[in-house]
Amino acid sequence: MSPLSPCGVKKKKIKLRGKILSVYKQMGKAIYNYQMLSEGDRLLVAVSGGVDSLALLKLFLMRKRRVPFDFKIIACFVDTNFIQTDKETLINYFKDSGIDYIIENLNIKEKDRNCFWCSWSRRKILFETAKRLNCNKIALGHNLDDITETILMNIFFFAQISSAPPALDMFSGRIKLIRPLAYLKKKDILEFAKQLSLPFMAHDCIYGEGTRREKVKKIIKELEDSCPQVRKNIFRSLRKIRKDYLV
Questions:
Q1: Does domain 18-245 have CATH number 3.40.50.620?
Q2: How many CA atoms are closer than 13 Å to the CA of 126, on its beta-carbon side?
Q3: Do the Cβ atoms of 155 and 115 come closer than 8 Å?
Q4: What is the per-residue DSSP string for the chain?
Q5: Mind listing the pLDDT tens digit for each residue in 3-31?
Q6: Which of 18, 56, 69 is nearest to 166 (CA)?
Q7: Which of 2, 69, 81, 184 could form a disulfide with 103 if both were Cys (CB 3.0 to 4.6 A apart)?
Q8: String of DSSP letters for 112-132
Q9: Residue 27: C-alpha distances to residues 60, 86, 179, 207 (Å)
Q10: What is the pLDDT of residues 192-217, one digit of tens each?
């Protein structure tokens, strides 16, 4: 673990227009609908270096300069011993953007390296870090694609109906998990990140469950040809459950 590193650089406001405006508004809509942000919040933003987490961090910085109340942002990067990431580029970005940040280390033995254990261990680190830094919310970069794929994966492979909800209270409400990109497709986040030249990087894990998720991605993609709203429909379906028609 490294100590919290403060930064004090101030940046000019980004003009809201085109794709930048639409992404900013969709994030704002999710924040409003699920009451994700309040006065005095201390946010621990999980940053992997990928496009989603860096876009999320940037959007929070943009929002912080525009909303009429104050909240704290702390970026948290979990550095694993088996995924290659350009950590220095990430740290330089934090410093250049004036973001307080912390680096945590995750070491997993080779025999234990699998998607479930890695995800569980990362989440544990985030919870412990949030508690130590007195953060009441943890922000994750999951987008609409991630959430809809997770819904179908849980149905197809685990025989359960569950999701990655946009907001979830944990530990009797002491910490709240939030996913402010829940309304945004991956392609829109990617375009947003490219327009703002965010230094995102690919870091696919060789131990991940890529095969299952890729199969589900393909199914959704094929369905989009005849139903362009299929991702949103899957997402919205969990709020329109017809209990009388369930087993």
A1: yes
A2: 27
A3: no
A4: ----B------PPPP--HHHHHHHHHHHHHHHHTT---TT-EEEEE--SSHHHHHHHHHHHHHHTTSSS--EEEEEEEEESSS---HHHHHHHHHHHT-EEEEEEE---GGG-SHHHHHHHHHHHHHHHHHHTT-SEEE----HHHHHHHHHHHHHHHS------SEEEETTTTEEEE-TTTT--HHHHHHHHHHTT--------TTS-HHHHHHHHHHHHHHHTT-TTHHHHHHHHTTS--GGG--
A5: 565 554 455 667 889 999 999 999 999 99
A6: 56
A7: 2
A8: G-SHHHHHHHHHHHHHHHHHH
A9: 9, 27, 9, 31
A10: 999 999 999 876 666 655 678 889 99
For the chain, percent of residues with pLDDT exceeding 90: 73
Confidence of residue 230 (pLDDT cuts 50, 70, 90): very high
Contact 42, 133 (CB under 8 A): yes
**Strand order in 72-80's β-sheet?**
100-106, 72-80, 42-46, 137-139, 175-178, 167-170
Q: Confidence band (pLDDT; 50, 70, 90) for 233?
A: very high
* Predicted pLDDT at 123: 92
Is residue 35's pLDDT more than 50? Answer: yes
Q: What phi, psi does 120 have (nearest 5°)?
A: -65, -45
Amino acid residing at 14? I
